[in-house]
Amino acid sequence: MKELEEYIAQYGTVKEGNVLKVDAFLNHQCDVELFDRMGAEWARLFAGKQIDKILTIEASGIGIACVVSRHFGNVPVVFAKKYQSINLDGEQYCTSIHSFTKQKDFHVIVAKKFLHEGEHVLLIDDFLANGCALNGLIELCEEAGAIVEGIGIAIEKGFQDGGKKLRERGYDLQSLAIVESMDPAVGTVSFRH
């Protein structure tokens, strides 16, 4: 998606340690019109697939997933919670993931009443690097007996192996921008086409 690449080039900041900061439009301040166009593109890319539910992980994926839902007939959006709270009741699916950004492990939780056997699920997230978060979401779907129909990623770090491994496993992974390389010294990003 050329427009997303242009946003990254204009508003993104490259930092040491393979960090791409896109908080001006994607994961702190949200450009809802851009999210809407991203949703339209994923609807085109996943056309013909049955999507009963969208699953993401808190927090950055929630806003994107909610807007994307509009392009799939307003299907419910469920997000995996990173923290147990007194509001989480009943039986739960749970797995552990490692956050590249926070350099921390999280137990992620989805209430069983919101993810069911046989449901066709679209996974949506803002970033894909090593694939830890997505692998956790896939584990939750497998535990529930839900079918992962596709994975929509806003920005994939193509120089890391998360996307490659998921595609090798047969997942229909559609990233709207794939970063080939980043240079923190000059602040540039190059994209895969």
Topology overview:
Blueprint: H1 2-11, E1 13-15, E2 19-21, H2 32-45, E3 53-57, H3 60-69, E4 77-80, E5 92-99, E6 104-111, E7 120-128, H4 132-144, E8 147-157, H5 162-168, E9 173-183, E10 188-191
Helix pairs in contact: 2-3
Offer a few descriptive terms.
alpha/beta, Rossmann fold, two-stranded antiparallel ribbon, 5 helices, 28% helix
Describe this protein's structure.
The chain is of the alpha/beta class and 193 residues long. It has helices spanning 2-11, 32-45, 60-69, 132-144, 162-168; strands at 13-15, 19-21, 53-57, 77-80, 92-99, 104-111, 120-128, 147-157, 173-183, 188-191. The chain has a six-stranded mixed β-sheet, sandwiched between helices. Strands 1-2 form a two-stranded antiparallel ribbon. Strand 5 and strand 6 form a beta hairpin. The model has no long low-confidence stretch (mean pLDDT 93).
